[in-house]
Records
---
Amino acid sequence: MTEKRGLSFPQSVERESRKKKMKNFYVYILASKRNGTLYTGVTSDLIKRIYEHKNNLVDGFTKEYHIHSLAWYEIHDTAEAAIAREKQIKKWNRTWKLKLIEKDNPDWRDLYDDICGKPLDSRLRTSGMTE
């Protein structure tokens, strides 16, 4: 296992994460609960990054406010496109962000288990998270 700030990052998750790397970039929204506090981020390794958020390996906003559920994400071919989209979404008002989530994920399911079990390249966006 790889050690990350005192907690172990399971080799199986790390291995799956590497397999899925076709150098895509992801914009994602995490939520504390349905209609709760939101966080928008960007990464080139969605599985690993969400794992880090869920296990409080990331200091800052998500750790402080317990924002651990993956509510929405989308895939981009380039880092520039993903960063531009992240900046765009961060400027949006809350209502627009909620509509974006609810369009693809009306039940607010946590999508983390979905992305760990299915190839990311087969979906542009996925559904799910509950309170």
Note: The helical segments are 11-19, 46-54, 61-64, 79-91, 94-104, 112-117.
---
Amino acid sequence: MMVIVVENAPPRLRGRLSLWFAEVRAGVYVGVYNRRTRERIWEEVKQMIGDGSAVMAWSAQTDSGFEFEGVGANRREAIDFDGLTLVKFKPPPPGASIAQTGAHTEDKAAK
């Protein structure tokens, strides 16, 4: 299984993704494809994303059971912790307000 989540994606890309995947929520696409097809789809996402951002996660034979890759502006990054993939938040850019970083929204979601 694989999941692609897009933010601020051009309509052309969203339409293209909806041909290949089920759009279970706005900007969240789910499907089942092999490695070769997944890589081809991801190349198209990277070419078409423009100023937006996207992340793709897929099932993998790892300790965490998945892998993921992102493109575009994102404060999250994957780190390896003894073979387990974890997500680390990058610090906000200097002078950025809470509204610009989304930190307030993310903190509320965690509660």
Note: The CA atoms of residues 13 and 47 lie 9 Å apart.
